[in-house]
Amino acid sequence: MYGWRGKVLRVDLGTGTLTAEALDPKVARDYIGGRGLGIYYLTRELDPGVDPLSPESLLVMATGPLTGTRAPTGARYMVMTRSPLTGAITCSNSGGHFPTAFKRTGYDAILVRGAAAEPVYLWLDGERAELRPAGHLWGKTTHETTDALLAETDPEAKVACIGPAGERRVLFASILNDKHRAAGRSGVGAVMGAKRLKAVVVKGEGEVPLADPEGFREVNTRILTKFKEAAKINPPALRLHGTAVTVMATQNYGVLPTKNWQHGTFEGWRGIHGETLTEKYLVKASACTSCPIACGRRTKVEVPGFEGEGEGPEYETVYAMGSNCLIDNLAAVTKANYLCNELGMDTITLGATVACAMELVDRGYLPEGDVGRSLRWGDAEALVELTRQTGLREGFGDLLAEGSLRLATRYGHPELAMHSKGQEFPGYEPRGSQGMGLAYATSPIGASHMRGDPAYWELLGVPKNVDRLAHEGKARIVADWQDLFAIIDAAGLCVFFSVRNLIEPRLDCPPTGILAYLNAATGANYTLEELQRAGERITTAERLFLVRAGFRRKDDSLPDRLTRVPLPDGPSQGRVCHLEAMLDEYYPVRGWDQDGVPTPEKLAELGLGGPG
Amino acid sequence: MRVRVRLFSVLRRYAPGGEETAAVELPAGARVADALAALAIPPEIERVVLVNGQHAPDEAALADGDEVTLFPPVAGG
C-alpha cells in the first residue's frame, strides 16, 4: 500500500501479546485513517457499555495516510476510546514530532486492550515491538518520563506518555507527546493509566512510500507557493503571537467566556492576549513536523512563584484559566498550563472546573473549608495550587479531578457546570456565535472546538462570512463543516492549515486540496464525492456508537445559562442560543430522526450497519 | 463626520502614530471601504471589520461617532 503502511499492531497488555496484522485496503479507503480507523475499530471491537477504565476497554492510536508525508501539517495522530469523563467517544488529536515517527515505524495504528499487572511501556523500533517494564517511571512527570525513556531507548526516538494525572485516573488526564503536545481532551490519559501503560516510544526511519511521488511534489509546490505568496501580503499572526491572539477577536465580538460563562467580555483581556504573551514570556515560535504555520509557543516565566519553562499557553487555555476565572495574570495561567502538561491533564477542563468551583463558592454552595483555602474570583495563586492538587488527586484536587459536572452535582447545583455531554466548553460563547452552540451540542465527544468549529465562519469569515447571530441555516453549515473536520482528522492533517489552504472557499467547502494530496499519496483515486462521503461515514459511525451507548437528542444539550439567560453585556448583549430550533433543522440535514438516531436509509447509503 | 477606528494585532501598523485607537475624519456618506482607504490599508489585506461590535462589509455606511474595529481573521486553540 502507499500512503498507508498497511499494518496494524495489536497489543494485549493482559497477556503481554503483540500481534501485527494487515490493514484491509477497503477499510482504509472507506475510513481514510486516523479518526476514521479509530471509529471503525471501536464500532467492531468495543461494547459501548464497557467501563472505559476496565481492562476490556480498547484504546486506538492511529495516524492518517498524510501523517509523516511532506504535506504541510501532515503530522497529526488521533487517540480514540470510550471516555471516562463523558461515556461518549474520544477523538483526542495531537501534532508535534511523535506522529511522524509513529507512522514511519511501519504501523498505521496501534490497538491496545487489557491491563498490565505492573506498569509497562511500548517500544517500537521500526516494526519491532516490545513491552518493557515501567515501574521505575511510575509517578514521574511527562517531562521526566520522556527524558528517561529517550536515555534508555534511543535519543532519536519520540515519546507519548502519561503523567501522574493519568496514573491516578484524573477523568480528564491527557497523553503528552514530545513533552508539550497533548492529545488533550476527554480523559484518554486516564484510560492509559488504568491499563498501566505509561508510554509509547517510537523510532521510525525513511519516508512514507507514495503512490505518485512526482504528482505529490507538484501538489505540494502549488499549495505551498500559494501559501507563501499570501503570507507576503498578510503578516502571519499565528506565528507572531500564537493562538492566544484569538482573545482579540472573541473580546471584540463579546464572545470571550468570562466568570464561568456569566459574561462575554473580560475587562482584563489584554492581560491574557497573545501579544502580551509575546511581549512578556515568548522565547520563540515552535512548529510541528512539516508545518509552515508555527503557532507553538516556547515560553519562559521568571515571575516569583510562577517560574517555569515549557510551551504554551494556547487560546483555549487562556480562556479557561484566564477570563473564565477572572484571572488576568498571564504568568499564573502559563504556570498552570506548564503543570497541566507536566502532570498530564487537559487545560480546558481543568480551568473550567476551577471556574465552576469559584462560582459554587461565590454563591455559598461550596464551603471554602472543603476547598482547604480561599477560592475567590481572580485568585491566581489558587489556580496554580489547585492545578497541582488535581494532577496528584491531593486534597480538594481529588474532587476537581472528576470534572465540573460531577463537582457541581455533588454540591447540589449541576446547572453551574458549563458543559455538553459532561465535557467542558472551549472558549467561544454560543449566544454570540449561534452555530457554535449546535456544534458543541452535536459533537461526538461533548463540547469541542475541534470537531467542526463554525466560529471560523461566524467570527472570521473563513471560508465565507455568515451572520453569527442568526440560527436559521446553520444546520447545513455545521453538518458539512463537521464532515470536513472528520476528513482532516482522518487524513492526518491540522485544521489550521486545511481550512484556509485545502478547501474551496464556498458554502459547501469542497476539500479539493486534501483530495489532491490523498490521491497522490495513496493512489486510491477518490472522487470528491467519495471523499466527502467518507467524512460523513465517519461522523455517522461515531453517532451510531453514541446511540448504542444510549445517547439521544436529550443529550445534545447546552446548559440553561446559554439557552435561557440573555448575555448581560457586550456586543452580544441580550442574546440566547437557539439550540432546539437548530437541532430541528440539523437532524433532517443529517438523515437522522428527530431523536438524533441515524435512519436505516442513511446507514445503508453509507454502508453502515443498523443501530442495533 | 468622525469615526473612531480601533486596530488590533498585525493591523496596528496602519494606525496613525501606531496607536490602537485613532479618530478618522470622513466625508458624509462614507462607507467602511472609505475608512480603510483613509488609513491606507490595502484592499488585499485580510481583515475582519466590525462596526459597533457587529460584522460589517466594505460597503456598509458609516455614521458620525461609529466605532470601527479591525483585526486579522485569526483564531484557534
Task: Describe the 3D structure.
The complex is a heterodimer of chains A (612) and B (77). With 612 residues, chain A is α+β, with helices and mostly antiparallel strands. In chain A, helix 7 runs antiparallel to helix 22, helix 11 (315-322) runs parallel beside helix 13 and helix 20 packs across helix 25 (579-590). Chain A is globular, with a radius of gyration of 22 Å. The model of chain A has no long low-confidence stretch (mean pLDDT 97). Chain B has a five-stranded mixed β-sheet with strand order 2-1-5-3-4, with helices on one face. Chain B has 77 residues and is mostly beta strands. Chain B has one helix at 32-38, and strands at 2-7, 21-25, 48-51, 54-55, 67-71. The model of chain B has no long low-confidence stretch (mean pLDDT 92). At the A-B interface, helix 8, helix 9, helix 11 and helix 19 of A face strand 4 of B.
Q: Supply the helix-strand structural class of chain B.
A: mainly beta
Oligomer: heterodimer
| Tally of helical segments of chain B | 1
Average pLDDT value of chain A?
A: 97
Instruction: Provide the β-strand percentage band of chain A.
Output: 5-15%
The biggest beta sheet of chain A reads: 6 strands, mixed
Biggest sheet features of chain B: 5 strands, mixed
> What is the CA-CA span between the terminal residues of chain B?
39 Å
**Uncertain residue segments of chain B:** none
Helicity of chain A, as a percent range: 40-55%
Overall pLDDT level of chain B: 92
Distance between the termini of chain A: 34 Å
How many strands of chain B? 5
Q: What global shape of chain A is seen?
A: globular
* Strand order, largest beta sheet of chain B: 2-1-5-3-4
Helicity of chain B, in percent? under 10%
What is the strand arrangement across the widest sheet of chain A? Answer: 2-1-6-3-4-5
SSE succession of chain B: EEHEEE
Which geometry of chain B do the CA atoms define?
globular
Note the total helix count of chain A: 26
